Amino acid sequence: AIELEPGLAKAHHNLGNLLVKSGESAAAERSFRAAIALDRGRAQSHAALASLLQREGRFGEAVAAYREAVNQDERQLWVHNLAVCLCQQGQTEEAIRTFLRASELDPGSVISHVAAAELCIAANVPGLTRAPLARAAALDYADPGVAANISRLMQTVALDEEAEAFTKRMLEAHPTDETLMLLLANVLQRGDRLEVGEPYYQRARELGA
Questions:
Q1: What burial class does residue 41 get, using C-beta atoms within 10 Å of its C-beta: 0-12 exposed, 13-18 middle, 19+ buried?
Q2: How far is CA 145 from CA 128, 153, 188, in A?
Q3: Using one digit for the tens of pLDDT, what is the confidence trace for 18-27?
Q4: Angle at 87 between CA 82 and CA 90, to 5 degrees
Q5: CB neighbours of 167 closer than 8 A, spacing ≥ 6?
Q6: DSSP-assigned states of every residue in 40-57
Q7: Residue 57 main-chain phi, psi, to 5 deg
């Protein structure tokens, strides 16, 4: 057995991390809780405990632990994971606010931008999608599938001008992607520019043949 100096919160925390890696979840939880008992201001231990509880599906407890971590240190990943757990608890309104905050904290986090937009759409508050989708549209994507999903979300909430500009830019990077071509053709058709969109439909049909 490993014996630790009881006053060393960091040692309990580090032991908890080792126990997580070895699959000893119950022992890891005890170590993280010991670290917190010795130093309640240790945000990393609250977050580590929250992550463990989240993986075990104990979302209510995870929410409480992430709240403690975020109150002490508003790290983007912790804010995002708090929003995920809030969703699992059915706390949609707070989850939306929290995903939007995660999106603000890291403009490069496409997963937070998309999660915020999707939840806003599902909750029928499409007006809140503009900011996270604008952040998502400012990024570049090696995976055209991710780009296509963002274009779809924009079109779902009638951000057609933004969707057109974004999809055209993504097609420059992925000029043979059939889905992006269809999405661009669709948004052009919605703008009563069927004749402009038709070549994209035609090219997509050729690629899909």
A1: exposed
A2: 23, 12, 20
A3: 999 999 999 9
A4: 130
A5: 147, 151, 180, 183, 184, 187
A6: TT-HHHHHHHHHHHHHTT
A7: 80, 15
Segment holding 89, helix H or strand E: none
φ/ψ of 158, rounded to 5, equals: 65, 30
Q: Long-range contacts: 65-73, Cβ < 8 Å, 24+?
A: 68/40, 68/43, 69/43, 69/44, 72/41, 72/43, 72/46, 73/43
Residues 6+ apart with CB under 8 A from 126: 120, 156, 157, 158
Chain segment 75-108, per-residue pLDDT in tens: 999 999 999 999 999 999 999 999 999 999 999 9
For CA atoms 88, 94, 98, 104, give the dihedral sign. positive
132, 123 in Cβ contact below 8 A?
no
Asked if the model's pLDDT at residue 173 lies above 60, the reply is: yes
- Position 91: which residue type? Q
Q: What is the pTM of this model?
A: 0.88
Q: Strand, helix or coil at 141?
A: coil
Which residue is associated with the tokens 């606010």?
97
